Amino acid sequence: MATTNLDTDPYRLAIVAAERLRAALIGHGITIPSLRGSHPAREVPMVELGCCSAEVVEALAAALERVGAE
């Protein structure tokens, strides 16, 4: 039985990346409910951002603009 190194498993990397983004967004009061790790495409970890309201997009844009201004 083969073992999988979780540090290099593309699916696991996608999940970890999605959770990192989720935590960063929460720090700015932003929630994207559909954010999740997805299955890899050609061994590249993929994250689904999904659909969110215009209100969430405006909050995300404002947060990025604040960070960019620093």
The total count of helices amounts to 2
How many runs of DSSP E, i.e. beta strands?
Answer: 2
Identify low-pLDDT runs.
Answer: none
- How far apart are the first and last residues' alpha carbons, in Å? 51 Å
**H/E element sequence:** HEEH
Q: How many discrete domains? A: 1
Give the strand content.
15-25%
Task: Give an account of the 3D structure.
The protein has helices spanning 10-26, 54-69; strands at 36-41, 44-48. It is of the alpha+beta class. The chain has one domain (10-69). It has a two-stranded antiparallel sheet. A hairpin with a 2-residue loop joins strand 1 (36-41) and strand 2 (44-48). The longest helix is centred in the first third of the chain and has 17 residues, at 10-26.
Features:
elongated; two-stranded antiparallel ribbon; 2 strands; single chain; alpha+beta; 70 residues; 2 helices
